[in-house]
Amino acid sequence: MHAGSADRWAALAANAIIVLGYPRSGTTWLAKIFDSHPDVLYRHEPDELTPAQPLLAPDAQIRAWLRQRGLRSAVKRPSFPKSWRPPALDRVRSAIGTALTASERVQVTARLSTHFDIPDFVTHQGWSRVRAAIKLVNWDGALTAELMPGTRSVFILRHPCGQIASVMAGIAARRFGGLQFDFAAARSLAARRGIGATAFNGLPDPAKLAWSWLAFNEPVVDSLGKLPNARIVVYENLCRDPERLSKDLFVFAGLDWHPQTSAFLSVSTRGDRPAGYFDVYRATEIAAERWRQVMDRVDQESVRAVVCRSPLARFWPDLAMSVA
Q1: Alpha helices of the chain — where are they, by DSSP H?
Q2: Which of 53, 54, 72, 86 is the most interior residue, by most CB within 10 Å?
């Protein structure tokens, strides 16, 4: 590896913007808000393709993930023009991504998309403007933020009923193959709070998912909330006032505001186009509260009964009132 190249990736990792959150909490939309900035080089869930190596230090691990340029990680749509990549190379890269996406549907060439590194096309002069952003789903964000003070971690937190309603919709649509989740952490937390294994197994599915929501979110929020280089974002607040909160996050991350991000927010929050399950385009204010109409009332109360006494209940008035 060329020494100059290694230094560049080390610098990008040391100052990376790291987007974290529980699945179905708005992490992709938040990550794409950062990606919409023309200076940002983005990687999407590289830890899903290459699991973390236990013996690697966080900085080395982040650096390795940033260098991952497979189709899923490096070309997560929508794509945005970049200040450090000439428009002509933007078109070339888009064509490569389209061709590899098409090859995934053909059995003979499907492996090509998993082994081909898509170039970023950063010009020599452009490296000084590049800022890395990375969305991770299986990483200890608190440890990274603590050991890498130059990074900026943004953790998004969604109302448990909204997150669980989304998961249950995915189960109903056979996107997850049934309720096949690892509830080990949920069982452990429930046991520490007086809910034994037999009682846990007898809970309705929404309550089990609520314990899982708590087991993931509570320790991360507690740890990140104490660090100056981390922010907790409530999904519903971002949906209600996306531009103001995004501007605040850009200041926190050290990015200037850009019309390209304003344009993306305008389009991604209108909801005047069909939205798929994994899409970032939806009427966000409606999406944030839709669970109140589509989630069975009994299921809602099952979730509230689990989470209402958690410190996280303070983020949502209806959960805080449940405690009262």
Answers
A1: 3-14, 27-35, 46-49, 58-66, 71-74, 87-103, 110-115, 141-147, 160-172, 184-192, 197-201, 205-224, 235-240, 242-253, 259-268, 284-289, 291-294, 297-307, 317-323
A2: 72
Question: Distance (Å, rounded) from C-alpha 317 to C-alpha 295?
Answer: 18
* pTM over cut 0.90: yes
- Which residues pair with residue 231 across a beta bridge? 154
Is residue 67 a contact partner of residue 9, using CB atoms and an 8 Å limit?
yes
Integer Cα distance of 68 and 47 in angstroms: 10
d(CA 141, CA 181): 21
For tokens 């590194």, the residue is: 117
Name the percent of the chain lying above pLDDT 70: 88
pLDDT in tens, 100-129: 888 776 655 555 555 688 999 999 999 999
